[in-house]
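Continuing the batch. This is chain 6 of the set; chains 1 through 5 are on the previous pages. Same settings as before, nothing changed between runs. Recording input and output for traceability.
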Amino acid sequence: MLYLKRRGNRRSIVLNFDENNIPLTKEFMSWFGMLVQHRISIHIDMCNVDKELFKNLWLETKMTWNIETNAPEEFMRKKAVKIGTNFRSRLVKEYLKSEKAKKATPIKKFIPRLGRGGWKGIEKKKDIIWPQLEEKYEFLKNIKNHRSKMYLLGCSIQNKETKLYELPPSAIVDFKILVNNCLI
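Output for chain 6:
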């Protein structure tokens, strides 16, 4: 049992789970959603969240809510992935409506060139192209987001002399603008 204090009123909340380990308390799910949004970076794809990070999240949840069993852990991990994905989607939708997005749009000058294979073709070559780009451009080593990587892979051009992939200057400028505006 956990006691929550709201506007001076202290009330107890009993946390129960159904037979499928789904929590039946709205306050718990609200609290868990906020915890996920604050602890897991929006720059990490939710499918690729480190197991250790989620383990720590679950341990904190168990301690805070006095949960004695690990039975709901798998359901809560799946719920955390869904909460994080929905949160990122809402952030993107809200950003696209903002004044900041409207100002940044005309600044971007480069459009990815994918060739005949499209995004699937780039996906097949990413293990060849991405290490070459990371070696040449130091700032790319911090990028974890798959969509950001795919955007840059689509911008890359093969140097005809060296046969290595490079980014055109306009793509680098565009990407740094996106990073500085916290879009990626």
